[in-house]
Amino acid sequence: MPAISQDPLLIRRLIFLLLAVIVVGTLLLPLGTPPMVVNQESQDFYDAVAALKPGDPILISFDFDPASKPELEPAARALLRQAFRRRLRVVTLGLWQTGIGLAAEAIEAEAEIARSRFPQEGENAYPQYGKDYVFLGWQPGQFALIVRLTEGIQGAFPREFRGAETERLPIWNGSNGEKVRTLGDFPLVVTISAGNPGIDEWIRYGRGKEDFPIATAVTAVTSPGRMPFYKSGQIIGLLAGMRGAAEYEYLLNRSEDPEKFGVTPPPLVAALQGMNALSASHFLIIGLVVVSNIMYFTSQRRGRR
Amino acid sequence: MNFLRQQFPLLIALVTGLVMIAQYYIAGEYSRDLGGKAADAYIIIQGIVIYLGIFSLLHSHIGKVTRLEAGWGYSIFMFLGIVLMLVAGFWSGGRLDEGTPYKWLYDNTIVPLSATLFSILAFFIASAAFRAFRARSVDATLLLTAAVIIMFCRVPWGEYLAGLISEEGGPAATRAIARWILEVPNVAATRGIILGVALGIVATSMKIIFGIERGYLGED
Amino acid sequence: MNYHARRSIALSCARLSARQLARSALLCALTWGVLLGQPALADEAKAPVELTQPTGVSAGDFPYDDGSVIAVYWDRMPYDAVEGVEYRIERAATADGPFTEVMRVPAGKHFMKDVALPFWAWSKNPDRHLVQVPTPTRPAEADVPAPAADPAAADDEAAPQEEEGKPDVGTTYYFRVQPVYGEQSGPASEVVSAAARSNWLALPRLNNFVCVVVFGGILLAYLEYAKRRELFLRKIPGLVAVDEAIGRATEMGRPVLYMTGRLDMDNISTIAATIILGEVAKKTARFEVDLKVPHSYSVTMAVCREITRNAYLEAGRPDIYRDDINYYITEEQFSYAAAVNGQMLREKPGAVFYMGYYYAESLLMAEAGATTGAIQIAGTDSESQLPFFVTTCDYTLIGEELFAASAYLSRRPELVGTLRGQDLGKLIIMIGLLVGTAIVTLAPLGGYSTDWLYDILRSS
């Protein structure tokens, strides 16, 4: 038996080194983006946003922190890109205080990209802060904040992130005179969710009190646990980890119409570029499992002799 | 004093629990207002608890430094970190705008440190997979087989390799297999766990509301 | 086709010979057919539809809400089948008007059967229209000041009154319904009136209420039953191993590390973890082995301090109790994991307990613990972390086994009784699943509807 297999610490360090080399290597090598096949749950997520009409309100909740940034920020950026492209009224907030910086940055970056597509003068200027999009910021309370949102959004967030009173903002007023007051007034709510509070709390405390369609982007490790909600229709779209974000980016890049706006923004590639590294690391772990089992059965056979 | 430590908290739990249960089954405006006010009260308490957490943190690390316990030097760094973020936060007016020191610290310390710590998980998963995914029994074999199939089928390289075997059928087959595992046994098992946990939550909530469960008060 | 065209064709046919007549007749027939098939060229408007006055119009408070909706009803009309017909719903503050349009809905839609309320709370009449008209808000919507275009300027205006924005309950409004088809308008219906009311009972939630009452009744019944008779509890391997783990830590002279999860005291799994801590603390007190309980939340820490102090008192060892058995680290997820990992690698505990709800840090801690050679026992209801605990820990309590653990360890009748009640609840759900699946599969074969079953199962 080779000495290496008798030293668990050494094996662990070799595994760590191998993983680091493979992931860094695939990120640095010019492999391009692999061809993407879109799963149904990601397609449903895209379709849910695409079904909204210009001027419809959408609520996006940034329920993640910097730890989940590589998996969830690409989905958040892609969602904002699609929402602004559809000329929706984008209401955003965050339930995780350490994620607020990421949320504010992503919203302004995508709003700036949207400004390059739409007129900036006259009544059709879009997007304008307070009228077409707003970032409400963060409030303590976690699940209680979601309950509060079912009673009244303006009461839950008396002031938005920049300090203005939310009650007086024009974003709540629709073209038909209807006013957005509670979660039930949104034709779509989306949560970019890394844990608690997240999609479970939105379903339990939000949809338990009011009926509204909800879609979500979650980390890959929690996505199998959210499949029952997707299969039962409680969630109408599900982006599973970086793979789901890559599929969503692929759908958005493919549906860009340069003739419609006269300008095409830089394509969304943050998650797509991670697909090679993701594939390589998966294959490494499969290899490790195979090697481990070979070593196990070999030692079993030797033990029996 | 005994009443305040024992019976009074139980009374609060009973009254609050029954009122909030009743609120769910009453449709009107006052019920809705009550629900909103209860949520507001919880939010206010949560806000206060943040300061409680900071106080506990400072208290525990001050004790470490004054008693010169093992690792007290790290506590100094913890204090430095708190002071630095406070100063940067006040200097920036509490705003996370581009160009402010607060935003700089956020972008260059919190974000990379948090992402790095989460990324360590990948290495631990690899070493755990090597150590634990062995076909010791039927259950373990099923576990590792499902894991290997999902890892292969849910990445683009897996679909590409399957496409080398059959150009259209390969990727479709990988998607179908992964989809079946995720939508049938996974959903069935997860639903079972969710249902069981939900019943446990309802039962424990009722026990707390009716004072049967008092462990949270520090009693037996 | 106009009169002159028809007359010309008729006169032309009259002047021809028989063969010519036959040929012409064929030509005429073809021409008539084409002309009759084409829309009138002179008039581009749609063919008029007979729009009669809507019948059976009534209005009333929409039930089971806070008065934010008034319902307007009317009968299904013959022109509901015509595409393009719409109904205009108008509202006024007085019976004489002026009426303003508040909603416009397409014909052939919006019936009582389309409302998502269960059958016991609502009549799903397929032949009665229903439109839910939002109640005006207080003060009346026309009086609300125009919202500020500049968010900064919004700050200068007075704060809105508490009553503003709420439905104007109790005020009577007047409604009428008018069919329209393009430019054509039919006669408006009679004027009807209604006032929104804030309702009391949320009858659609009756199914939920019945479940709560039944399940609560089962729990309380078993509670009483367990006080009189001893109920059987199967061995949960993870809990049986608690003694073994603590004994091993004692022999090795190493501490026991116990974690209560990553959520605060408001979470049920944290409560279960604190109850198990009480039992573990009694054993560590008896065996005189060091116990260390790092915390993420100060409230949980305070509760666990009380529990631990009482446990040491009960075990007769108050002399070795210390307050710093329970200590606070941080709320931050990975900072907590890093601190615990560091402690495990330095102090090499003999036994590690992971009880409660965990997130991504679970594998970080469990893998670090595995490298130290400690016996690891986990109990969590976090289904996404279960695979990690199962692969790295010696024993894992899955899902509600964690809640059962507090009953198993303490053997208190009230806890054992409710555990049996939970089991009966699960049995009822399992039977319900089988029966429901059979109904949903077989009913359509007999032409029966299963909407009533979905109403019973759905949360309103």
Structure description:
Chain A has 305 residues and is an alpha/beta fold. Chain A is globular, with a radius of gyration of 23 Å. The mean pLDDT of chain A is 91. With 220 residues, chain B is an all-alpha fold. Helices cover 82% and strands 0% of the residues of chain B. The radius of gyration of chain B is 27 Å and the shape is extended. The model of chain B has no long low-confidence stretch (mean pLDDT 87). Chain C has a six-stranded parallel β-sheet, sandwiched between helices. In chain C, strands 3, 4, 6, 7 and 8 form a five-stranded antiparallel β-sheet that branches. A three-stranded antiparallel β-sheet of chain C has the order 1-2-5, with no helix packed on it. Chain C is elongated and about 110 Å long. With 460 residues, chain C is of the alpha/beta class. Chain C contains 13 helices and 14 strands. Helices cover 42% and strands 17% of the residues of chain C. The interface between A and B is large, with 62 and 60 residues.
Biggest sheet statistics of chain A: 6 strands, parallel
Question: What's the average pLDDT of chain A?
Answer: 91
Unreliable sequence segments of chain B: none
Note the beta-strand portion of chain B: under 5%
End-to-end distance of chain B: 18 Å
Give a short overview.
The complex is a heterotrimer of chains A (305), B (220) and C (460). By secondary structure, chain A is an alpha/beta fold.
Topology summary:
The complex is a heterotrimer of chains A (305), B (220) and C (460).
Chain A: H1 8-28, H2 40-50, E1 57-63, H3 69-85, E2 89-94, H4 100-115, E3 133-138, H5 143-151, H6 153-156, E4 189-193, H7 199-207, E5 214-218, H8 223-231, E6 238-240, H9 241-254, H10 258-261, H11 275-304
Parallel strand pairs in A: 1-2, 1-4, 2-3, 4-5, 5-6
Chain B: H1 2-25, H2 29-66, H3 72-91, H4 101-132, H5 138-153, H6 156-165, H7 169-183, H8 185-209
Chain C: H1 3-14, H2 18-37, E1 58-61, E2 69-75, E3 85-92, E4 100-106, E5 128-134, H3 151-154, E6 172-181, E7 184-185, E8 192-195, H4 206-228, H5 237-252, E9 256-259, H6 268-287, E10 291-295, H7 298-314, E11 326-328, H8 333-347, E12 351-355, H9 361-371, E13 375-380, H10 386-392, E14 395-398, H11 401-410, H12 413-442, H13 451-457
Parallel strand pairs in C: 9-10, 9-12, 10-11, 12-13, 13-14
Antiparallel strand pairs in C: 1-2, 2-5, 3-4, 3-6, 6-7, 6-8
